[in-house]
């Protein structure tokens, strides 16, 4: 928004007709689960049971997939505001009160054009064992979109680190998608304050836009066209016309369908999640700045500097950062070179694995989180 075959069962979601229904179901789930987990004495929560019994872990993972997604309206109602360098940043924490500090908090970072609600299918499951934070990056979602602002990957990475320092106040695991993943990589590489405990990268981008400097003949061949497109976007009338066409509901649905493997999850909520912030004042300026700006630091140069545990999940049907492209090939080579990197290819999944096939993501993510070394 952006390696083993995965045989997980399809994701089970109950109808999301109301917030009350979701809360009632989740309460029922927790009540039933209490009796099952009480028979194992080596853990403090269901996810940690992974280390107690493989059979039990499979049962817990399957039942967790039945948790209902958060309603977009509930996310919007419970979001908070944080002022960063004079700009208002929108963020979300779930559950709001959690006194258990045995597990690290998680910070979710969306991709291009997305926002906090893009994680609605993941937050309830992750929040069973972790305090989950999510933010709207500057220029996206309900965060400020300042006119004339020069967006960059470095700015977003600084925002992430300051959020960890001022709001989370504990070492956290960063979970990012697409450009959000790259922002997490930059933040982890630049952090000198021990704020990051681990990285989860979902189809990591090679740069803020398609002009990322990578050794690929396809990008080199297209560079003149990309520069010409940048020139057109810098003409206010042309940019406004193109942006108006892109943010139409039918256009967004078509674009999203092209980058999702699971077309069923391209629903009205998803379209609205992308469409609503694009109507804000400053959204056009943000779009133009991001598409035409410098691509930023390259993950190829940054990853070797990071010794933290890294989990890479990659949808094999991603048209933006294909696994056989330069960025995908680089990440697929990492497990054989770096002992701190684990990578899994998710079959039939597109650029946004966490929303496309959350069941496959959770199957790999939850055990990895449960086995993170203590900070």
From TrEMBL:
| Any Pfam family hit | Abhydrolase_1
Q: Which domain of life is it from?
A: Eukaryota
Alphabetized InterPro entries for the sequence: AB_hydrolase_1, AB_hydrolase_fold
Record SUPFAM superfamilies: alpha/beta-Hydrolases
For this UniProt entry, the molecular function terms from Gene Ontology, in alphabetical order, are:
hydrolase activity
Domain AB hydrolase-1 as annotated: residue spans: 104-358
Q: What is this protein called?
A: Alpha/beta-hydrolase superfamily protein
Taxonomic lineage is: Eukaryota, Viridiplantae, Streptophyta, Embryophyta, Tracheophyta
